[in-house]
Fold this protein.
Amino acid sequence: MTSPDTPGPAAFASADARRRPPGMTDVAQLAGVSQKTVSRVVNNERYVSEELREKVLRAAAELGFRPNTAARALITGRFRRIGVVSLGSALFGPASLLVALERATRAAGFSFMVANTIEGQPDAIQDAVDWLLAQGVDGIILSEPIDEGQRLRAASGVPIVSLGHARGLPEERVVLAGGRTAEACREAVEHLLDMGHEQVWHVAGPQHWWDARERQDGWASALRERGIEPPPPFTGDWSPAAGYAAGQALPPEATAVFCANDDTAIGLVRALNETGRRVPEDVSVVGFDDIPAAAYLSPPLTTVRQDFEADAIHGLDVLLRLVPGAAAPETRPKAAAPRRLVVRASTAPLGPVL
Amino acid sequence: MTSPDTPGPAAFASADARRRPPGMTDVAQLAGVSQKTVSRVVNNERYVSEELREKVLRAAAELGFRPNTAARALITGRFRRIGVVSLGSALFGPASLLVALERATRAAGFSFMVANTIEGQPDAIQDAVDWLLAQGVDGIILSEPIDEGQRLRAASGVPIVSLGHARGLPEERVVLAGGRTAEACREAVEHLLDMGHEQVWHVAGPQHWWDARERQDGWASALRERGIEPPPPFTGDWSPAAGYAAGQALPPEATAVFCANDDTAIGLVRALNETGRRVPEDVSVVGFDDIPAAAYLSPPLTTVRQDFEADAIHGLDVLLRLVPGAAAPETRPKAAAPRRLVVRASTAPLGPVL
DNA sequence: GTTTCGGCCGACAACGTAGTCAGAAACGAT
DNA sequence: ATCGTTTCTGACTACGTTGTCGGCCGAAAC
């Protein structure tokens, strides 16, 4: 309309008050520079005069410019995003780990995407990995406490690191928690034995969680080291209900129980109370996790504290080292805070037999 | 080398065994069709013969083709991704909500990105929103229990929905939880009054959480409806420690306490036990949340159960309705399961005064 | 026999950014 | 003055996908 010969679609585009967010081209036009110069300023490249840099920054601020990550990812082939496969669970352990991972990831300048698996679904982990790959991630953290024995297909060059045991992944890709679980379990068991208890029973977690098996193994071997043959463990599912059931079935001669987690310990204590056994006078109980409420239970629970933050940071460090283009994270002291026993009132020396 | 006249960079590219993942062009070449046809097959568009469709699918499978979301987002301007701003917390409530949101989001075909805020940081919410916008999202859910009174800047056309109260957001963007909190609180208070208690004390959550204020208001107005002037509430921070402190300061004449959450109730019970007051014989206690351990505490805790899954699905539905290009979610019954009181053993009729 | 029309397919042009390369300007050393 | 080097800038193009449009084909309608 304004000019007799329509010079093509470009004229239309400029005439149209586009709804699309401003791009580098718009910033460049406003600042009177080329799009490439805007790119240089945005990416902090060298060889841009201070004068132009400021002009560009002003123009970008004025337009509310935000670099388009899709376009950037398209050309670089990098997403600056890491994915996490996690069991969808509001349990204290997994939830804490996830929060810690998000913090560490964003601090490293990467964005963070979770894919939750659904327990019991056979290919859940592989599906979650595929979903993350389809979304575009530069690396994947397996924060999956369940080891279902499946192998992972090749992930098309995207590095994968597992927080904890995982089959089908080479050794160096497996990051074990900072403090050794076995040591913590031994500490708990020895704490009980040193108080005079002659035997320690165990309420385990579900056996397809490697974490549960690790705690069970730690308990069993700690007993054997003292020459004690461990009794058959109760098998639970992390739930208070499982602890409750174990508490009802606990033999009368038992005086000390090590639970795979705090919730289970809560259920156990409940069952013991109902059957007229007092904690810790009659039975000593140790938990695992140190949930916030642990110190305020009746009685306050002796338990093993974990440092999820340290584990998350460590795992992410290992992963980022494998991601090309990720600034190598400064090597911080890798000695993650070990798991350690927190002694409270749910354990006591074996009293005189009534 | 193979041909005397190098026809340009394209020849080089084809000669080079590229490390880049296969694209539609590669699939098209293998299937003997045009790249556009591959696009049609992948997107399930009409007007592709069954014969070609199968050929393309075979070729795509053979190459392990995955559509590049970055390129797609670049041209469509849509990301098929929704972002969630959440307080980074492993508390049972927020964690449950997040898990439910992830499930619902992925089920709707959208990917899911969380940005955690850090409590106490003044512009935390705005920063998290900006981060999500920079990453590219089609909509944002504010699952932020803290209302810090800040207004949100315009989010450049991206719809925002808040799960719970939020200033600076128009009414229709605020999704309140399915069951009314006030009703649940009234139910809890009346449960106690009906058992003969003449007064109900309250241990509140932190006042900058709207959730805490809502529960406190519900408690106060329920008392006033019965003509009882509520006593000054204790103010906590959701932690067991706060409940413990309240329990120590609880006046001797108090016989019933309504706590803002279960953890606080746990701390309260602990303090009461230590000062020689039994629950529920001397003091009845009601919690809020129904954490998994609630039924197994000593005594089992009377509390208010929440349905996070329903709240999450409802909130996401509202958001997706505002997102252009999102298939309108089938209108499921919006009557989310209300919060309801679960009566257990921590509450009992007021006994004879000793 | 011609026209019309819906099904089917491909050429081409974007999308917003970063890599490559060429060239201009400024400067010091010959 | 001439050259080389460093600093700075912009034109051009590729990245992998989708939107637009036009062409071809066979069947139905004139």
Summary: Residues 1-18 of chain A have pLDDT under 50 and may be disordered. Residues 33-37, 40, 46-49, 52, 71, 73-77 of chain A lie near DNA strand D (CB under 10 Å from a C1').
